[in-house]
Structure formats: structure tokens, C-alpha cells
Design a protein that fits this description.
Blueprint lengths: L5 E4 L8 H11 L3 E5 H9 L4 H10 L3 E6 L9 H20 L4 E4 L13 H16 L5 E5 L9 H11 L4 E5 L1 H6 L15 E6 L1 E2 L13 E2 L8 H10 L6 E3 L4 H5 L2 H12 L4
Parallel strand pairs: 1-2, 1-10, 2-3, 3-4, 4-5, 5-6, 6-7, 7-10
Antiparallel strand pairs: 8-9
Helix pairs in contact: 1-10, 5-6
Length: 273
């Protein structure tokens, strides 16, 4: 893990506006940001353009590397799927205009799983179709396991990506979801890591995974029970060379000024570089 690949997810701070957030991230030492796209869209609804967001990124010496907003609907009605896929494609184009190459997404599941013969295959087919639609954007959809009643582990997320047969379908690895799902350390291997296209960073309180809340129980790297050094070392051993974006849902950090919170997060990452 290198300092040159450190990023921050904008959900990690509470800020009055997008400019306050970006200024805070740059002061803290970050050069890369992953956006909660709802924040970008709110800024644009105030009368700003994508160009204004790009200009602001440039002004603070930051680059957008990814974003997230909604899961991909695979099992809803035809109308629901059409509207959702239009949103997903639009988000890919927005991220592309901002210079990003990854988009974190989840998936849904069937209302009656017992009646679906191959839900993983069904999800893979939907992702394959969406991948073709957004291929020209250069954005890769990264499936976040545990954001779905079906895709509950790294192994299953990698299987969806594999069965999609699309180069722009990959996996998002997040230590919090690793801790709270059936994912095992030995699943971070030569078969799954090539599908991992983006990594979130966080640590977890020392609680059993099945009793943990994958968001509320996050703590800063080094303050929890996860062997992050071993995890990151294994990811890189098997070829991961992407960004590491810290993503926190932490009341103590949210109570701080964005600059103070971002500095604390940046400092917590340095021992792993």
C-alpha cells in the first residue's frame, strides 16, 4: 500500500458543502477522492455543472477516482429495472466526466429465492448487459459484497464478475464487509484478487462478525481487531495495484470539522504504507 494510492470517501466527513470537503481533504494530505454521488448531484442541483466540479477538483489538486450511489436492480419489475439501469448508466457517465474509473454498486435479490434456480447467473447476466452499455465510459462497476441478499461474500462477488465475462465488472473489497460475512482470509487469493478493482479501508471493533454492524462498528485503521497489514499484503501479493479509499461511518469523526476528521483518517493510514 503506497501513499500515492490513498483516497478518501466523501461519506467519511460531515461538511457544509462540497468545496469545504475538498479543501479539507487536500489539507489532510489526500490527493484522491471517492464521491458519494448524492453529494455531487446536490451541488449540481444548486446550479453548478460537471465542469464546475472538475474545476474545483483541479483547484484543490484532487482527482476523483470513483463514486457510489445505488445498487443495481436485477430482480425488480421491468419498469424498476429500466429506471435503475438508466440511473446506473448515468452515474457511470458522470463519473467518467469527473475522470473516475470505478463505480461501487450493490445488487438486489429475488423476492422468493427458492423459486430462482440460479440467482448468481441472473445477476451476472444483468451486469454483463450493463457493462456493454457503459463500456465507452471507461468505468468499471465494482460489486460490493454484503450489499445484497445474494452476494454475501468475496467469493460470490468474484463469481458474478467472472460469469459476466465483462472486463468492466469487478469487485469492491471492504474489510468491514469481509469481517461481517462468510468471507474467509484464504479466499483472498489468486482466483479472486484479479477481480478486485477497488478497496475501501476501515477497521472493526473487536466483536464477532455476526454481531457486528458493518457500518456503525467501524473504527480507524489500527484501532480495531482486523489484521489489515496481512489483508493488504495478500491483496498486493496477488496483484492488486489500485486505490485504497478510507470509508468511515463514525459519529466521533462526523462530529469533528472536516479538516480535523480528514487529518485523523490520513494519519491512521500511514502505518500501512
Amino acid at each position: 500500500m503506497k501513499k500515492s494510492r490513498l483516497a478518501i470517501n466523501s461519506v467519511s466527513t460531515r461538511h457544509a458543502n462540497l468545496e469545504e470537503a475538498l479543501a479539507a481533504y487536500r489539507r489532510a494530505g489526500f490527493k484522491f477522492v471517492e464521491f458519494a454521488l448524492s453529494q455531487v448531484k446536490e451541488y449540481m442541483e444548486e446550479g453548478h455543472s460537471v465542469g464546475d466540479v472538475r474545476d474545483m477538483l483541479n483547484r484543490y489538486g484532487l482527482r476523483c477516482v470513483g463514486g457510489f450511489q445505488r445498487p443495481v436492480v436485477c430482480f425488480g419489475s421491468a419498469r424498476e429495472r429500466k429506471a435503475n439501469h438508466r440511473l446506473i448508466a448515468g452515474n457511470a457517465r458522470l463519473l467518467s466526466e469527473l475522470g473516475a474509473t470505478t463505480m461501487v454498486v450493490g445488487t438486489d435479490g429475488p423476492k422468493d429465492p427458492g423459486k430462482v434456480k440460479d440467482p448468481v447467473g441472473d445477476i451476472a447476466r444483468v451486469f454483463a448487459a450493463l457493462a456493454r452499455e457503459i463500456k465507452d465510459t471507461g468505468v468499471t462497476m465494482c460489486i460490493e459484497f454484503n450489499w445484497s441478499p445474494v452476494v454475501k461474500s468475496l467469493r460470490t462477488a468474484a463469481e458474478v464478475a467472472r460469469r459476466s465475462r465483462a472486463g468492466n465488472v469487478g469487485v469492491l473489497f471492504d474489510p468491514a464487509h469481509y469481517h461481517c460475512t462468510p468471507t474467509k482470509f484464504d479466499q483472498i487469493n489468486a482466483e479472486t484478487v484479479p477481480y478486485i478493482k477497488h478497496v475501501h479501508v476501515d477497521d472493526m471493533r473487536d466483536k464477532p462478525g455476526e454481531l457486528s454492524n458493518c457500518n456503525a462498528d467501524r473504527v480507524l485503521p489500527g484501532q480495531g481487531c482486523l489484521d489489515l497489514k496481512a489483508i493488504f499484503r495478500t491483496l498486493e501479493k496477488h496483484g492488486y495495484r489500485g486505490y485504497y479509499a478510507i470509508e468511515m461511518f463514525n459519529d466521533k469523526l462526523w462530529a469533528m470539522s472536516p479538516t480535523a476528521a480528514a487529518r485523523r483518517m490520513y494519519k491512521s493510514l500511514l502505518p500501512y504504507c
